[in-house]
Amino acid sequence: RRIGELGLRVNISEMDVRVSKLPPGGGGVDADDREDVRELAQTEIYRDILTAALSEPSFDGIWLWGFTDRHTWVKNFYYDDAPLIFNEDYERKA
Prior knowledge:
Layout: H1 2-5, E1 10-15, H2 31-54, E2 59-64, H3 74-77
Parallel strand pairs: 1-2
């Protein structure tokens, strides 16, 4: 908000939401359910950030660091993760 008050436009760039290191969803949760919990958390984080950004008049845009986990840079640079909004099969998550 303060940046907008200076007359500047606000952009979010190179966003990705890494979730593989989030703790499992609780005791007795199998691997598939853990992945579902992580996808849900990722979806909520993307939604919350975008909702907050869209509420600001100075918000100008959001750019992701790719759109499919098939070609994410995170796997080669950090660790195995699925940080983008589409999975490796180009399907929408959660």
